[in-house]
C-alpha cells in the first residue's frame, strides 16, 4: 500500500519522451537518469545561488540539466569514460569547426600509420580492417591532442569503437554478433566516425548558457575531493554490484582500451567492475537499516545475502561521505530501483531513506514512476542461474530527503 509520503507520480513517466534526447543522445550510457525528471527536481528544490551535486554522475545528465538552469554543479564518478562523456555533453561546439577538423583528418587518414593499443582479444571483438582504421584515427587523435574540441573527438571515437565492434548492437555487456551474421558484417569506420561527429556537433551547437562545473574521478567510498558545501543532491546510484546488475566496467572496456593514454580522466580496464560499489568481497558490518536487516534475513542463499550486504555497506559509506558535504538546509534526491535477489525484493527506496534518517535527514516524499524509457535490462537473473530470469524494476523510486 502507498503511504501519504509514497506517491505514484504519473507525471514522471514521460511515455513519449526518450531519456536519450538532446545532449543525452551523445554516447550510450547504461541507466541514465531521465533529463525531464532532473529538470523537475531542479525546479522544485534548487536554491538561487546553491550548488547542485551528483555523486554518481555517470554520463552527466544532472550536470547538463543543472547548467541549463544556470546552476553551479559538481559531479563525481569512478568511471573515467563516464566523465569524458559528461564533459563532452557540456561543450558548446561550432559545427563548421568540426567539419574543418574532419576534412583535415580525412586528408591524412590514408597515410597515417595505425596506432593499435593492447586490446583484450582484439581479433575476436574487431575485424582486421576495422582494427586498421580505428588505429589510424587513434594515431590522428594522439598526434593532434592539442586540437580544439579534442575531448569532443575522443568521445566520438569512443562511440565509434562501440558501433564498429563485433558486439551486438544495443547490448551493454560483451556479447558477440552471431557467427553467421558476422560473416556479412562490414562496418565502415571512417563513415561512422564522421557521421557521429556531425550528429554530435549539431546537438552541441545549441549553446549552454552557463558552464560552471567541476568533475572528479573519485571513489565515493573515500572522502570527497572538493571543499564546497552542496544544497541539492540529484543522483542515481548503481542498483547492486556490477556482477549481478549493470556492468559499467564491462560496458566501458572497449572504449577505455582504445582510448588508452588519451582520456584526461585516466585509464581503466576490465577490473573497473571490481572497484564499483559492492565489487570486492570483504567482511563488513550491517549498515543501520531495519529494512535491509529484514531483507537479508529473508535471502536464504548466504552467498547472495552477503553480496547484497557488501553492496549496501559500500553505499552506506558513500552516503556518509555525501552527508559530510551538505549545506545547512539541503535536499537529497536519490533515484533508485528495487531489484529482486533470490526471489526477494530489495527495498532500496526504504533502505536509502533509513540511511539518510540515520544521518539526521527527514523523509519528504518518495515518488514512483514507470521506467519504460530508461535503458535498463528488463530482466535480471535473481537466482544467478543462467536462463533463470524474472521481471525487474519497471518502477523507479525518487526518494527525497530534507533537513
Ligand atoms: C546508475 S549510474 C549513474 C547514471 C547517471 N545518473 C547518468 O545519468 O548517466 C551509477 C554510476 O555509479 C558509478 N559508480 C559505481 N561505483 C562507484 C564508486 N565506488 N564511486 C563512484 N561512482 C561509482 C558508476 O560508474 C555509474 O556511472
Automatic annotation (TrEMBL):
Its keywords, alphabetically, are: DNA-binding, Methyltransferase, Restriction system, S-adenosyl-L-methionine, Transferase
Alphabetical list of PROSITE patterns matching this protein: N4_MTASE (PS00093)
Identify the EC number(s).
2.1.1.113
MF annotations from Gene Ontology? DNA binding; N-methyltransferase activity; site-specific DNA-methyltransferase (cytosine-N4-specific) activity
Domain of life according to the entry: Bacteria
* GO-annotated biological processes: DNA restriction-modification system; methylation
What class does this enzyme belong to in the EC scheme? transferase
Q: Which reaction does it catalyse?
A: a 2'-deoxycytidine in DNA + S-adenosyl-L-methionine = an N(4)-methyl-2'-deoxycytidine in DNA + S-adenosyl-L-homocysteine + H(+)
> Has the keyword DNA-binding been applied to this entry?
yes
Extract the CDD domains matched here. Answer: AdoMet_MTases (cd02440)
Q: Which residues form the DNA methylase N-4/N-6 domain?
A: 23-85
Specify one Pfam family.
N6_N4_Mtase
Q: Which InterPro entries match?
A: DNA_methylase_N4/N6, MeTrfase_CN4_CS, SAM-dependent_MTases_sf
Give the protein family.
Belongs to the N(4)/N(6)-methyltransferase family. N(4) subfamily.
Designated name of the protein: site-specific DNA-methyltransferase (cytosine-N(4)-specific)
Upper lineage is: Bacteria, Pseudomonadati, Nitrospirota, Thermodesulfovibrionia, Thermodesulfovibrionales
Amino acid at each position: 500500500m502507498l503511504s501519504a509520503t509514497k506517491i505514484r507520480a504519473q507525471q514522471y513517466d514521460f511515455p513519449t519522451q526518450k531519456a536519450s534526447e538532446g545532449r543525452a543522445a551523445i554516447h550510450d550510457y547504461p541507466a541514465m537518469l531521465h533529463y525531464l525528471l532532473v529538470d523537475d527536481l531542479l525546479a522544485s528544490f534548487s536554491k538561487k545561488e546553491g550548488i547542485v551535486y551528483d555523486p554518481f554522475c555517470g554520463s552527466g545528465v544532472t550536470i547538463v540539466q543543472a547548467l541549463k538552469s544556470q546552476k553551479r554543479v559538481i559531479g563525481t564518478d569512478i568511471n573515467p569514460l563516464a566523465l569524458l562523456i559528461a564533459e563532452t555533453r557540456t561543450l558548446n561546439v561550432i559545427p563548421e569547426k568540426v567539419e574543418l577538423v574532419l576534412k583535415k583528418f580525412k586528408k591524412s587518414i590514408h597515410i597515417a600509420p595505425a596506432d593499435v593499443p593492447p586490446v583484450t582479444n582484439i581479433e575476436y571483438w574487431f575485424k582486421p580492417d576495422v582494427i586498421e582504421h580505428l588505429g589510424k584515427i587513434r594515431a590522428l587523435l594522439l598526434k593532434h591532442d592539442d586540437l580544439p574540441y579534442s575531448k569532443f573527438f575522443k568521445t566520438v571515437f569512443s562511440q565509434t569503437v562501440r558501433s564498429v565492434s563485433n558486439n551486438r548492437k544495443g547490448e551493454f555487456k560483451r556479447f558477440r554478433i552471431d557467427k553467421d551474421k558476422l560473416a556479412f558484417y562490414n562496418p565502415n569506420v571512417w563513415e561512422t566516425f564522421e557521421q557521429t561527429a556531425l550528429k554530435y556537433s549539431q546537438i552541441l551547437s545549441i549553446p549552454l548558457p552557463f558552464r560552471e562545473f567541476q568533475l572528479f574521478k573519485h571513489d565515493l567510498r573515500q572522502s570527497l575531493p572538493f571543499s564546497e558545501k552542496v544544497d541539492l543532491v540529484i543522483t542515481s546510484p548503481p542498483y547492486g554490484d556490477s556482477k549481478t546488475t549493470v556492468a559499467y566496467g564491462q560496458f566501458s572496456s572497449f572504449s577505455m582500451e582504445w582510448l588508452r593514454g588519451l582520456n584526461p580522466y585516466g585509464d581503466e580496464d576490465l577490473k573497473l567492475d571490481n572497484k564499483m560499489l559492492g565489487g570486492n568481497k570483504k567482511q563488513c558490518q550491517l549498515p543501520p537499516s531495519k529494512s535491509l536487516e529484514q531483507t537479508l534475513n529473508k535471502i536464504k542463499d548466504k552467498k547472495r545475502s552477503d553480496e547484497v550486504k557488501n553492496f549496501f555497506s559500500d553505499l552506506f559509506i558513500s552516503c556518509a561521505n555525501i552527508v559530510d558535504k551538505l549545506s545547512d538546509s539541503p535536499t537529497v534526491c536519490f533515484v533508485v530501483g528495487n531489484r529482486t535477489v533470490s526471489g526477494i525484493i530489495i527495498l532500496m527506496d526504504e533502505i536509502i531513506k533509513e540511511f539518510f534518517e540515520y544521518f539526521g535527514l527527514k523523509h519528504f516524499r518518495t515518488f514512483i514512476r514507470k521506467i519504460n524509457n530508461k535503458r535498463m535490462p528488463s530482466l535480471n537473473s535473481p537466482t544467478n542461474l543462467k536462463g533463470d530470469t524474472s521481471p525487474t524494476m519497471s518502477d523507479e523510486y525518487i526518494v527525497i530527503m530534507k533537513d
